[in-house]
Amino acid sequence: MSTAHPHIAPAPHDRFDVSGVTPEGAAWLASAGTYPRSTVAHWESRPTAPVVLPCGSVFDVVNVPAIFGRRMLDRLWDEGPGSGPVASHRGRMLLFTAPGTAQRLPSLLQWEEWGPAVPPLLCHGSGDAVTVPAPMTRSTPTDQHLESRWVVAPDTRHPWLPGPEVLLWACVRAARATVRISIFPSADQDAKVYDVSRRR
Q1: Per-residue pLDDT tens for 20-62?
Q2: Domain range spanning residue 171?
Q3: Which of 141, 54, 137, 67 has its CA nearest to residue 96?
Q4: What pLDDT is attached to residue 19?
Q5: Ordered DSSP codes for 60-92
Q6: Which residue in 16, 30, 64, 67 has a CA-CA distance of 20 to 30 Å to 120?
Q7: Dihedral angle over CA of 87, 165, 59, 63, nearest 10
Q8: Over the stretch 69-112, which tens digit does the pLDDT of each residue have?
Q9: Domain count, the chain
Q10: Are 118 and 176 in contact (CB under 8 A)?
Q11: What is each CA distance from 11 to 2, 66, 88, in whole angstroms?
Q12: DSSP the chain
């Protein structure tokens, strides 16, 4: 079954990746904007175009360096409750979280005092906006690593979103893994697939 918006014409699979975004997931993303119907219409005409959406009402976003974000994501899926939607954008990982997380998480992290083991996190909440990947992304060799893309795509109209306590838990465990990391480089985990059926 196609995961693109029902009004978006199917694209050749060798040029585009639908990334698991369903029509319900696209509608949820669009609901964050002032004009949701306009956002959906924009994606209908330009299915590979990212958009900028405000944070604070439908979701917050925790923006972390890609490697640390991957460690957080692995802990969330291997040891925890899973995650909400997650995107990669320009070498960063964007974790979509419950509204209010951006305000609460920094103060929780201060109590942990992990120092350099936890890199600076950018928390986007009320008054902020983020670039959101499109339902389809180009997958040609020349631009595959330059565009925003979904790592865990939105697939429902009401996705479960982790709150600040869950993100703190993931940060602490990722930091512990960083402290214990081997001197040998880790294997590339770009191809890892997360089973969204486990998400709460």
Answers
A1: 799 999 999 999 999 999 999 999 899 888 999 999 999 999 9
A2: 21-178
A3: 54
A4: 61
A5: EEEEEEHHHHHHHHHHHHHTSS--S-EEEETTE
A6: 30
A7: -40
A8: 999 999 999 999 999 999 999 999 999 999 999 999 999 988 76
A9: 1
A10: no
A11: 10, 29, 22
A12: ---S-TTSPP--TTTEE-TT--HHHHHHHHTTSS-HHHHHHHHHH-TT--EEEE-SSS-EEEEEEHHHHHHHHHHHHHTSS--S-EEEETTEEEEEE-TTHHHHHHHHHHHH--GGGSPPPEEE-TT-EEEE--SSEE--TTTTTTS-EEEE---SSS-----HHHHHHHHHHHHHHHHT--SSPPPP-TT----GGG--
Look up tokens 């109209």; give the residue. 157
Is 198 among the domain residues? no
**Encoded amino acid at 140, one letter:** T
106 domain residue, yes or no: yes
Q: Quick check: is 5 in a domain?
A: no
* Assessment of whether the complete model's pTM goes beyond 0.70: yes
Sign of torsion over alpha carbons 148, 152, 158, 163: negative
pLDDT tens figures, 169-199: 999 999 887 765 444 455 555 556 666 666 6
